[in-house]
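Hey, resending since the last one bounced:
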Amino acid sequence: MWKRLCPRATATTLYELAPGFFLTRGIRGLIIDLDNTLVAWGEDKISRRMREWVREIQAAGLKICILSNALEHRVRAVGENLGIPWVSRAVKPRKHPFRQALKILGTSPQETAVIGDQIFTDIWGGNRMRLYTIWTTPLSTEEFISTKAVRRLERLVVKKFRKKGIFQ
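The structure tokens again:
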């Protein structure tokens, strides 16, 4: 059970993840969560720094797809603004939306990473598909009410991982 929830890597923000991080691991495609990973929860405004990061990733030949449980209008707005494809209303951690994202990217699970701020959606779903999973710190403390409840359980999981020395 614990292995399914454990990310392969952690990062404070996406900005820590340079193209070389992915390329040295054979990763060609990135599936990225929207809320509290690409943008603050409920926002569709993209920071200049995030735009630069996306351009840097794309310039290195990496492909990106947004995968979000959010409604289509928000996910589409960010995706179109950044010029990257998206899958909305994903119901992560189900496998089907991850398969959709892989098809869009044209990559295999072995050459794809999923990046997100939630262990029970992004990381669990990515691990179910055998993707390279990267857990990030949420961009904001604001989030959907049900997510706040799940965060309590997530904190217990993280505490257990830290106790076992899995990550800091």
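The domain at 2-163 is CATH 3.40.50.1000 (Rossmann fold).

Sorry for the duplicate.
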